[in-house]
Amino acid sequence: MELALGIILGCCALGAGLAMIAGIGPGIGEGNAVASACEAIARQPESKGSVTTTMLMGCAIAETTGLYALVIAILLIFVAPNILVDILVSTIGAL
Amino acid sequence: MKKTSLRFRIVDAFYIAMMIIPFIAGIVLKVLTKPASEGINITGAQIYFTIPMPLQDFIVTESQINSLLVTVVILFFCLFMTHGLTEKCELKRQHFAELIVEKVDGMVNENMGEYFMAFSPFIIGMMALSGVSSLITLFGLYPPTSDINIVGGWAVLVFILITYYKMKCGPINYLKSFTQPVALLTPINLIGEIATPVSMAFRHYGNVLSGSVIGVLIATALGSLSSKLLGWLPGFLADIPLLQVGIPAVLSLYFDIFSGLLQAFIFAMLTMMYVAGAFDADTYRKIMEKKKAKKVKKHAGVE
Predict the structure, then answer these.
(1) Alpha helices in chain B, H assignment, sequence order
(2) Residue closest to B247 by CA, chosen among B221, B271, B270
(3) Å between B203 CA and nearest CA of chain A
(4) Min CA distance, B180 vs chain A (Å)?
(5) Does residue A63 belong to the interface with chain B, where contact is any CB pair within 8 Å?
(6) Which residues of A touch B205 (CB under 8 A)?
(7) Of A34, A69, A26, A57, nearest to B267 (Cα)?
């Protein structure tokens, strides 16, 4: 029983950590977007307003995949252990 | 500047009071119901009460109450801003109100086109609700936008609007649009259709929630760090977490204010883009012309 509990909690934490590897992608993507925006503003300073708006928009959309990973990680840390332990207790029996 | 009457001022004061009272009510409600906790405490919205219903119990949570409070605040803000409108712009607030309306109208016109001008109240309403809901953390209240149920509701609303504007060209054209460009891609198109509201809801909720989670983690980390580093200080000084003063506020500037307002803007922007993109103006015009021609023909036949 203790072993099963340990495996559940440990694997939930490991899964959450692994899910957040997805944070690399949006990081690179947003970095590229901001770099290009800087170049564009340097070339045409008068278009600063529209470039900034478009860049923020693009950054927010690029962030989406990272946020999916974040939602999964949060579910794994805060929600999954309770449900899984309940399932364990109901199948094996109370401690 | 015209001198305002006493009655005008009393109504003004009432509006301002009604803008502040909801926040106080929310804080009082929170203090009365929330159990005190120590250390890291990241939980969902507090459940106030449940109403038994035949299918499923109707749960009233903190986020619903807070979003209603936000609605009241926005309502009275609007009443305050539009109180005493005149043609000559005698009050300062009228300039500000006109600025907001003009900006939003310009934004909607730029992004959606002339046909969707009726959307600008909806867009600014969405923006205000989302923005104030995120900013409510500054009062220490639970932000409704960090609850997936609230944001998911908004996303479903946007999804209904998108489907409505796709349906405008007829249900057959709507079903046909899923088989574009090849019939083989129908499942992927269906997934893409459902992914729109899901991604909108997750984007908004994830951003606000991650901000508050990071805020709590950093505040706790600073507290334990200061007790380790500054524990040698004499007397009561050792008990005060000195590092917690100020540093989390700087992060809150980004995570609560900037991120919250940016997400509100992006949610409104995406709503505009999706709704405007769903409407196929050319096909609609063709269908309307065909209908008109048919009507004319019918009339001619009758006569």
Answers:
(1) 6-33, 62-81, 92-112, 120-135, 148-167, 171-176, 186-229, 247-252, 259-278, 281-302
(2) B221
(3) 6
(4) 24
(5) yes
(6) 71
(7) A57
Domain A2-92 belongs to what topology? F1FO ATP Synthase (1.20.20)
* Per-residue pLDDT tens digits for A15-26: 999 999 998 999
CA angle A86–A89–A91, rounded 5-degree value: 105
Split at pLDDT 50, 70, 90, the class of B303 is low
Domain residues of chain A, as ranges? Answer: 2-92
ipTM over 0.95: no
**Residue B216 contacts A where some CB pair is shorter than 8 Å:** no
Size of chain A, expressed as the number of residues it contains = 95
Cross-strand pairs, B49: B60
Higher pLDDT, B278 or B237: B278
Query: Residue ranges of the domains in chain B?
Result: 6-33+43-302
- In B, minimum Cα distance to A62 occurs at B203
